[in-house]
Amino acid sequence: KALSYINKQYFSDANGNRGGAPNVAVVLVDGWPTDKVEEASRLARESGINIFFVTIEGPDENEKQNLVEANFVDKAVCRTNGFFSLPVNSWFALRKAVQPLVKRVCDTDRLVCSKTCLNANDIAFVIDGSSSVGTGNFRTVLQFVANVTREFEISDTDTRVGAVQYTYEQRLEFAFGQYNNKAELLNAIKRINYWSGGTSTGAAITFAAEQLFSKSKPNKRKIMIVITDGRSYDDVRAPALAVHRQGVIAYSIGIAWAAQDELEYIATDPDKEHSFFVDEFDNLYKYVPKIIHNICQEFNSQPRN
User: Fold this and answer.
1) Separation between Cα atoms, residue 286 and residue 148, nearest integer Å
2) Which SUPFAM superfamilies does the record match to this protein (predicted)?
3) Which of 121, 112, 116, 114 is nearest to 149 (CA)?
């Protein structure tokens, strides 16, 4: 109940929450909770709150039979690596926990529940599988997709990734949350089979909106990365405008024969921050750091809970 209360009441703009600062809750528990903490903790984590548990003493043998959740700390924290939990033997020993706790709270790199640019997104890759790409180049595109993905924190409560491949038609390769750890996700990207066909980029954008972004979580930023090597056979302007209006941040990556005007229509304004072009597939890798940087810079400049 206490975790639910702080999640709803404390960390809001109205109560002075600062967008750029990590949110931290330090919970001092004497013994054990008498209600369940798992669900309340999950909601708090999804809101970007880093929960630290300081547990003082523990239940004695007679009390253990009344425990509701014996491993409540592991269920409550972001990572079960010991970083977010400090067991203390007695109230008298509590002062010894001050410095270790302060050190951890100040280690912003390890506050993995904070909403950061790396764990606050639903990212959809919209991948051109047309005949002009070719099998070898398609593998290069998938490597680019994997390299971008690798930079993010991947889990159901962090960043989720989905992928659509398109020609004249569209195919959902995998949905948001289908793969919830990085290793599985990178393997799924590697396994995408090249399709070959025409180039209907506009229809692919609409398809991604329907199949992926309609299932986005409300507290996640929606990011679309369209990769294409040619001019579309259909209109891209109206579908792109529609997803922009839905709050999707769109990046366009053009290769070889991609049309500059279409890349600019697809991309969120300003175009120079969201639209990129390379002459050859082998040069795609150069834009990985730039895209990550822009995603993070944009995220950090926005007010957030």
Assistant:
1) 11
2) vWA-like (SSF53300)
3) 121
